[in-house]
Structure formats: C-alpha cells, structure tokens
Amino acid sequence: MKRIIPLFICLLIGFSMIIQFFIPHPTSLEFGSTIYKWVIVLIVFALVLAIGNLIRHHGTKIRRQKKDWPYSIVTLSSMIGMAIIGLFWGIQAESLFQKIYLNVFAPLSATMFALLAYYMASAAYRAFRARSLEATLLLAAAFIVMIGFMPFGQYIHPRFPAFAEWVMRVPNMASQRGILLGVAFGAIATALKIILGIERAWLGGKE
Amino acid sequence: MLAILPPTDLQAIDKPNDAGSSVNLSWKLSSDDSMIDGYVILRRLVSDTTYHEIGLTGRGVSFFEDEGTQDGQEYVYIVASVKNSRLFTSEPSNNATSYPQVFHTGRINVLLCIALFTAFLGYFVSQARTGKELFIRRIPGLAAVDEAVGRATEMGKPILYVPGLGDIDWTATIASMNILGEVAKKIALYDTPLIVPNRWSVTYTVSKEVVKEAFVTEGRPDKFKEDYVRYLTEAQFGFAAAVNGIMMRERPATNFFIGRFWAESLIIAETGAQTGAFQIAGSDSVLQLPFFVTACDYTLIGEELYAASAYLSREPLLLGSLTAQDYGKIIVLVILFGFTLFSFFNINLLALLEVQ
Fold first, then answer.
1. Which A residues 83-102 touch B at CB under 8 Å?
2. Which end of chain A has fewer CB atoms < 10 Å from its terminal CB, N or C?
C-alpha cells in the first residue's frame, strides 16, 4: 500500500497533466492552475522540513562543538537574523533587509562567481596537458577557437577567424544537437517510465 | 481633402486552439496605406446597431486580435483607415463568434510522437518481460560507480552526491534521484557515510526519502542517518560556496555531481579535483559538459544520465525502455534525412514539426 498510493497519484497526475497540455478549454487551464497552486503549498511544507534540517544539523554541530562549529553559528545567526529583519521591518526597497541583501549578500555571490575565472585557468591547465587523444583534440580545438576569436588571429592567416567560426558553427553545433536529441528522448522516456510506474528507483527500487 | 480608400476583404474568425474570448481579424491593406495614420477597429453585436472602437493598429498592419469577446455572442466588425482623425470605413465583416476549443490541433504532431514513443516503450518493455536479452553498451562512468563507492569505503571517508541545482521539475533532477537511489543501495551495503546537499526544499525531501528507501530495501534501515541528506540554501553561489566548504572540510573520497548545473559547475568540480577526490559527473546541460569532462574522472553525457538508472539496476523493464529510445532516435534521423532530401526540391516540411 505504501507504494501503490504514490504510484497511483503519480499515474493520475502525470496523465492528467499530459492531457491538459492538449486541451485549451478554460476548465483544463483552471485544472492546470490548481495543480500549480498545490505545488506551491507542497513547497511551503517542504521548506519547513528543510529549514528544520538546517537548524538541526548546525544546532548539533554547535552543541557538540564539532570541527569548524563556529561556521555553523554564522549560518544560523544569518538565517535567523534575516528572517527577523524581513518579518518585522519588511522587505520593501530601502529597507534594512534590502540593504543587507544588496550590500552583503550580492557582493558575496558576485565574489563566488568571479572565482570562476581562477577555476577556468586551473581547469584549462589540467585539460591542456594533452595526456590523451581526447585531451589533445580538446587542446587543438580550443587553440584554434581562441586564436581565431582574437584580433591577433587574422594576422596569422586572413581566413583564421572564419575557420574558428566554422569550428563553432559546424562540428561544435552538430555535436551539441546530437547530445540534445539524446537528452530529449531520455527526458521523455524518464517521464513516461515514472508515470507508468516502470521506473521505481525513487521509491527504493523494485519491490 | 481627397477620399482615402478603406481596407478591403475584412475577415473575422474565432481564434483557433484557444480558451475562448478571442476573434482574429484580417484584411487587405488600403491602397492608400502609405498615406494614412493607421487603422481603427470597430465592433458591434449583431443584435446591436452602434459600433464601438476596440483597438488601433499602425499602417502596414493587416491583422488584429480582439481579446475581449464574450463566448457565444455574435459580433460584426469594421476596420477604418484613419487620416487626420477622419475614418474611412470598410465593408462589415462576416459574423463571428468566439468559443473555447476542447483540442489543440496545433499540437497533433506532439500527440502523435508521444503515442508512437509510448507504443515503442510498451513493445520493448513487453519484450523484456518475456526474458529477451537486450544489449546495452558499456558506460564507463557508470561502470566506475562500484569502484567509486569501494574507494571511499577503503579510505574511510564520506561520499558526496550533489543532485544538481535544478528543482524537482527538471527531468535531469528526477534522473539524478533515480541514480541516487541505486548509489545509496551500494552505500548501504558498504556502510559508508554519505552527504547529499540540496538547493531546493522539495529536492531535499525527495532525496531524503530516496536514500532512506534505498537503505530499507537493502535491509539496513538502522544505518540511515538524518544527517546524510542536508538542505543548504536556494542561492546559486551560496550553494556552490557551501558545497566547496563541505569538500574542503570533510574531504569526501568520491564526489558525484549528477543533475542540472549552471555556471557553478566548474567551481564545484574543480574544487573537488583539487581535493584529490574521485569524481563522476553527469548533466544534460551541453554548456556545462566541457567543464565536467575537464575536471572529473568520468562524465555521463546527455542521455547517459537518463540511462543510468537502467544500467545500474539492470532491471529488464528499464533496459527495454532504452531500446525504445534508440528506435525513437532512428525515426528522428530518418525524418531529418527525409526533410533534407525534400528541401533539395524546394519542399519545406518544417511546418509539420512546429509546436504551437
């Protein structure tokens, strides 16, 4: 019974949403809208569980003074502090919540994103050591594209930029589309397998 | 002032494939189109005598969508050329009534494709049920899962499984949950610590249930710890920072990055590589795949992500679905090839593939 009920709900809602896609009637649209409202309700319930997990995990770390426990104090105090500020003083423009968001959170996020440049250099070094045939091909393709897209490229050969453009537009695009085609079929098959109850890994696998 | 010619051939029809309340109007432009200021659209109920203005268009435009009709009511329209606030009206249109449709005819192609693919799926799953041997090629990234789990067990270090940054409505996240179930079963057998950080509350609850069920299925429910599955934050780079922190502090021996990733993919994968962890990644995002290929030991590319659950579980029914996917691809290739051939004879069939 523990498995039959989720499988039945999955089958019912899955097929209903597929059918809904083909019916433009207002009743059908209303049904779709109601389902999405239920999704929001589910998200709120899940959020309570998730925040409970966050508090429990970090609370335990602080209580038992596990390794690096002061970071947990930062996490919990930030979360609780922002919640209190938002609840009591609002989140409108010019509010304290927005000021902290724009002057603390946004720069921290931007800093993490900026680190990408460093990681790219580090990953490029690893990839360009050309220790295998694949890595050599990657190195050659990257070299052609990078040189071709730089102003310097046309001084090597006037047609170098056009060749780099061709590498991006033809072999690169063809392989990307090949992958996307497989992804599309994989996604459809996964959806159908779950709706039809063939795929049950999300329920712990075959009974 | 000279008389301006009005538009002609005014046609009014119910907007197809909609939820009602819309009528589409089309007309032939006025012969003086270049001289006028625009067109005014007027409407009245058939039972009424007075026209009311309902909209304007610029010159050169010969289409208008009236989105304010009452379903079941009969309307008649006129369109007027406007010049210096004077109206030069067309002949009245035919009577038109809007009503909601019960089937979207612009999506028949999608319906046919789903029906065909479901038929393939049904056939090959039934073949698998009869015990017919189905071939599945070796996928190195998945063949290495046992090695990855074994390595962590030997080193006495945890396994990190990041189910992507997509919410549960991404198919890649659902596929990742299926793989997590299979990986968690192996982890339950070896009694290795597991860390599953989540960006979204719903993925947190789903992944927790998946891991718990995997431990129950393997007869080790007592080994499951609540702390294995964690909720971090919805912030994209906050999540990346937190995962990096976990990798640097807890030093997992094996990292799985499987699901939907965006710009943070390289930040996470490269940090994992620098900690010396054995890494298996998988994504359907073509833009992030090169980063994973560079920074990880194995990468599941595109559809391999969706085949993983079947590959790991070796369940015949799931393997049957993979064969259906292959046949689906053959049909798409035939269509592409056929359409290309037709295009040489100036026959463009692409409209058949358009989805409204």
1. none
2. N
Question: Is A89:A95 a contact under the CB 8 Å cutoff?
Answer: yes
- Give the separation between CA A127 and CA A139, rounded to whole angstroms: 7
pLDDT tens-place values along chain B, 356 residues long: 568 999 999 999 999 999 999 999 999 999 999 999 999 999 999 999 999 999 999 999 999 999 999 999 999 999 999 999 999 999 999 999 999 999 999 999 999 999 999 999 889 888 888 888 778 889 999 999 999 999 999 999 999 999 999 999 999 999 999 999 999 999 999 889 999 999 999 999 999 999 999 999 999 999 999 999 999 999 999 999 999 999 999 999 999 999 999 999 999 999 999 999 999 999 999 999 989 988 999 999 999 999 998 888 888 888 888 888 888 889 989 998 999 999 999 999 888 888 88
On whether any CB of chain A is under 8 Å from the CB of B248, the answer is no
> CB A21 to CB B107 under 8 A?
yes
Q: Domain extents for chain A? A: 1-89, 90-127, 130-207
The interface predicted TM-score (ipTM) is 0.92
The answer to whether the CB atoms of B235 and A105 lie below 8 A apart is yes
The reply to whether B201 touches chain A by the CB within 8 Å rule is yes
**Residue where the block lists tokens 């090169």:** B290
**pTM for this predicted structure:** 0.89
Please state, in angstroms and rounded to a whole number, the distance separating the CA atoms of residues B256 and B279. Answer: 6
| Chain A, nearest residue to B179 by Cα | A201
List domains and CATH numbers for chain B: 8-97 (2.60.40.10), 105-133+315-356 (no CATH), 140-309 (3.40.50)
| DSSP string for residues in B50-78 | --EEEEEE-TT--EEEE--PPTT-EEEEE
